[in-house]
Amino acid sequence: MPYEFLTTARDGSIEYLTLNRPDVRNAFNEQVIAELADWAAKTRDAAERRELRAVVIAGAGKLFCAGADVTSMSKTVRYSEEENLRDAMAMSRMFSAINELPLAVIGRVQGAALGGGAGLAAVCDIVVASDDAVFGFTEVKLGIIPAVISPFALAKIGQSSARELFLTGARFPASRAKEIGLVHAVVAIAELDATVDRYVQEILTAGPEAVAAAKALIPHVWELTIEEAMTITARAIATRRVSAEGQDGLRAFLEKRKPSWWSAR
Ligand code: COA
């Protein structure tokens, strides 16, 4: 599928994805959602083939992403409830597909991440933001709600911040986004790419299967009691220890060499 609104570039096992609709601040319309869903499916396959170890998601132009396309959303008032449901489900599946990618997803946020743009930041594992970036779950200002993005946003910011920010729709600075766990590093815009690169480098020196397994473990364990988690976490570490990757990593440390999957850029 050729993309109209996304650009992709590969550098070894890293994929760089750019939302490329700068005229409308990279807002998501139906086409963007379909393209992102297609990209996520292909990226999952490439990650499972071990061709990719991390992706960096960025936005072209002044800012990361202004969320759902309000112009195309205004057309949905003519849709039946059933058609609206289909439309919202497509967005929900797209976010979920990115959220569950079995590799590290790094968000590079400049300018602003609003509404679905903040949702896109929430489905990234690691988010680096420029210190002038603005965030917001602004939907209530339009008389709608941050529904589709809520599971992903809640998993990052928790109920207390969500109560304040979902209800007010207030815009807040990158420093606040970091305090509440939506963002992991806030740097000057000139430092954005170098900081993203440092995270990429960390991922390239971590076992790729271990990264995917650690990512899958987090939401799974979160749902469980400690009692229930015991057998699952014991099994998870036992599996990693006997895996070729785990054996290589543990031996490499003892033999003071780099494991086979260690890669420097
Ligand atoms: N959907 C559709 N179009 C959007 C958009 C959105 N979410 N956000 C911005 N645009 C469009 C604007 O309508 C404008 O179009 P025009 O040039 O035809 O007038 C263009 O993008 C540039 O927007 P502008 O506001 O002039 O740019 P800016 O850089 O000064 O501000 C934002 C950018 C994102 C801060 C501002 O546009 C904004 O607040 N947008 C709404 C974001 C929002 O609430 N999203 C949640 C949606 S649920």
What is the CA-based Rg, rounded?
Answer: 19 Å
Percentage of residues in DSSP E strands: 15-25%
Biggest sheet, strands in spatial order?
1-2-3-4-6-9
Helix percent band: 40-55%
Principal-axes geometry comes out as: globular
Structural class per helix/strand content? alpha/beta
| Distinct ligand kinds | coenzyme A
User: How confident overall, as mean pLDDT?
Assistant: 97
> Would you list the SSEs in sequence order as H and E?
EEHEHHEEHEEHEHEHHHH
Q: Point out poorly predicted stretches.
A: none
Strand runs, count:
9
Largest sheet: 6 strands, mixed
Distance between the termini: 30 Å
Q: Helical element count?
A: 10
Protein described:
With 265 residues, this protein is α/β, with parallel strands linked by helices. It has ten helices and nine strands. It has a six-stranded mixed beta sheet with strand order 1-2-3-4-6-9, sandwiched between helices. Strands 5-7-8 form a three-stranded mixed beta sheet. Helix 1 runs parallel beside helix 3 and helix 8 runs antiparallel to helix 9. The radius of gyration is 19 Å and the shape is globular. The structure holds coenzyme A. The site of coenzyme A (COA) has 17 residues, from helix 2 and strand 5.
List keywords for this structure.
three-stranded mixed sheet, binds coenzyme A, alpha/beta, 265 residues, six-stranded mixed sheet, single chain
Element layout with pairings:
Layout: E1 6-11, E2 14-19, H1 30-48, E3 54-59, H2 70-75, H3 81-99, E4 104-109, E5 112-114, H4 116-122, E6 126-130, E7 134-136, H5 150-168, E8 171-173, H6 174-179, E9 185-187, H7 192-204, H8 208-222, H9 226-242, H10 244-254
Parallel strand pairs: 2-3, 3-4, 4-6, 5-7, 6-9
Antiparallel strand pairs: 1-2, 7-8
Helix pairs in contact: 1-3, 8-9
